[in-house]
Amino acid sequence: MTPEAIKALVRSIPDFPKPGIVFRDVTTLIGHGEGFAATVEWLAAQVGKTNARAIAGIEARGFIFGAAAASQLSLPFVPIRKSGKLPVPALAIDYALEYGTDTLELDPDAIGDGDHVVLIDDLLATGGTAEAALQLVRRAGGIVDQALFVIDLPGLDGRRRLGRSGIEVTSLLSFSGH
What we know:
Layout: H1 3-7, E1 11-14, E2 22-25, H2 27-30, H3 33-48, E3 54-58, H4 61-73, E4 77-82, E5 91-97, E6 100-106, E7 116-124, H5 128-139, E8 143-152, H6 158-164, E9 168-174
Helix pairs in contact: 3-4
């Protein structure tokens, strides 16, 4: 499938979660077998160009795409969770949202010291969540220099933000606006 055909499978929902925002809903892409498979194949091919020893995915949709790509490559999958979801003492980081803060957590034993890890998520907007995930992986001893996203919203500057952290960002699709 072409990127244009995959892009057509992403549902756009205006004024969600607030007026003026167009929500890019990947559940319609995930629900399309051929489109989902093509997206995962693209992600796996991108990871295959690196020396990754693991793939880390950000809760929740990063789990779907990241775990599928990791499975194709027989790589470990490392979940980056929301607060309170891990049954072991976890590394945690608070990060800023548009209206408040949130917390991400990581099992410190999930990544070996010096392991190269590729970060995967469904969507890059401002980059705040991805930057927090990157910091967690690095704190656990991992090396991250590549982040993959199904969708980039370039008008929100997430790519530039991650670039300042030394991350190369690659995305399959791009949507203008918010």
